[in-house]
Amino acid sequence: MAKNKQKNTESKSSLPSSGNAMWFVIGVVSVLAILGIIYLLSKPSGTNQPVPGATTQPAPTLPTTANTNTNPVAQQTPPTPPQTKDNSELTTMDVAKAVMVTVEEDFGKNATIASALQQVERRYTPDDGSGRTFAILDAYGETMPDGKIHMSMHVSSEEAGTAQLIHKKTGKVLWNAKINPVTVPPQPKALRILVDGAPGGSFNIDVNSANNVMNATASGKGVPVMAVWPDGAEMEVTFIYSMCGCPVKAKVKRVGDRTMRTADTPVMFPDDPDALKTIAKFMKW
Q: Taking a C-beta distance cutoff of 8 angstroms, is the pair 175, 163 a contact?
């Protein structure tokens, strides 16, 4: 009996008291907290973890360059110039239409628009095997600082087929086109003249009413042109004498009973000398 009582006493003394258990738990928690703080302090900076539900924006990508120049201005990429169509590329158009062909070429020392036109070959291949497929109505431009001629040529299509403008000296194709036929034939070419800038307003000239401009009737006014075109006045005169009905404009001055051009350009109707001869005779150039 005494031995059993002694065993029970030894068993109770081997168990920790409730107060000791509480301190044990506090100690464990404290150790875990210290380990957590050490872990957080040891993490590299800048590695933020994404927050659940938040949108993460990607970092901007900087352009890379092989240029090792440290000057930021020198590393900038120059703007891309606008793309221009190569004149040698084949284009298409219908009969009785017009197109402006602009070139910048070396036509020789002291070249003019008139002499440059003589160095441009016209090549025609009509579908019906005869005639020409186009004509240059007028041309104008200027001489560039490097000596080249910047020239614009107003081209009118006349027949179906192929058409080319070639630089005779270099063989360069300045214009290359396929002209398509039309179902409705264009109107025949007929001379029409419009005078713009007159004090009484613009007017047409009835070219069939007289054989010269000053005696011809100003349409819609019922008087001769000399009555509405003051002597010494410069006017812009539009000549229409093409299959496309396109205007060719020139500055013209009245000098007594005749007129004269005040500038050499545009070069008018270089492919139609007969048309230019008719105009010059009527205008008394």
A: yes
